[in-house]
Design a protein that fits this description.
Strands 1, 2, 3, 4, 5, 10 and 11 form a 7-stranded antiparallel sheet that branches. A 4-stranded antiparallel sheet has the order 8-7-6-9. The protein is built from 5 helices and 11 strands, in the order E-E-E-E-E-H-H-H-H-E-E-E-E-H-E-E.
Length: about 260
């Protein structure tokens, strides 16, 4: 399957920003699951490229002249399949046992995990799938009730959230059972209007390999998913994060469109 992605992000500020730095994880890696046919970043100025601590492709965009708007666009065509087997390992799975500020489990999440511990020990794949469905049942997909800084425990207590929250709760539960788990940012081709194309899911290291779980869609990631980055939580894998000096309040407008490419 070939996916066409067009992702635009626009920041507008009330005042003048004297300096800003944006950390962009907007370029997908290439592996057995996804082959890059074309990919381009359109940025105000050239950005430096490197690889971050988790092996993600990182661009750092620095604007050191006065500005009141930042316009970012990532677009391209990527061929995907259902094979996730040969992703390069940069870090030991045990790194992803660490809790973070967004994924620290509370008593309720620990109890959720404990309810599924026996099933996971008996059969990791089916047990983790049951845990995924339990999280989705407990937290119906609801936009606008959580934000980028909402913790797993707060979202679970609220009983609602979006893909970021579902992933954080699932990751927190898995880590509480001693299973390495990581956050994944990416894109999803979906016919469902309730879920945006810019997406997040989780991966758990079990049975000697990383296994993906798309909690919001109650499914295992497949050729409809395109991976951008991984990390301990949203903070590490967010497609766009930045800091600035000045500018006052900001307005963010983001749009991500994923369609199936026409193949000749």
């Amino acid at each position: 399957m070939q996916l066409t992605i067009d992702h635009e992000t626009v920041y507008r500020y009330d005042g003048t920003v004297s300096h800003s730095t944006q950390y962009l994880r907007l370029t997908p890696p290439e592996n057995s699951h996804q082959r890059i046919i074309s990919w381009q970043l359109e940025l105000p100025v050239a950005a430096s490229q490197s690889t971050d601590a988790y092996g993600n492709i990182l661009h750092v965009l620095t604007l050191d002249t006065p500005h009141s708007e930042i316009h970012l666009r990532a677009h391209g065509v990527v061929e995907t399949c259902d094979d996730w087997s040969d992703e390069a390992e940069v870090l030991l799975p045990s790194v992803f046992l660490r809790d973070s500020a967004l994924t620290e489990p509370d008593a309720a999440i620990r109890q959720l995990a404990a309810n599924h511990a026996e099933a996971i020990a008996a059969d990791a794949g089916s047990g983790l799938t049951a845990l995924m469905l339990a999280v989705a049942d407990a937290m119906p997909y609801t936009g606008g009730v959580t934000g980028a800084t909402t913790t797993a425990s707060d979202a679970y207590a609220l009983g609602a959230g979006v893909c970021q929250d579902h992933s954080h709760v699932f990751i927190a539960a898995c880590r509480s059972l001693g299973l390495p788990a990581r956050y994944v940012s990416g894109y999803l081709l979906s016919e469902r209007d309730t879920h945006v194309a810019s997406h997040a899911w989780a991966e758990v290291h079990a049975d000697g390999r990383w296994q993906g779980f798309d909690i919001s869609n109650r499914m295992l990631p497949d050729r409809h998913h395109l991976k951008l980055a991984v990390g301990l939580d949203y903070t590490d894998a967010s497609p766009v994060r930045g800091v600035r000096r000045g500018g006052g309040s900001e307005a963010l407008q983001a749009r991500a469109q994923v369609t199936e490419a026409d193949q000749q």
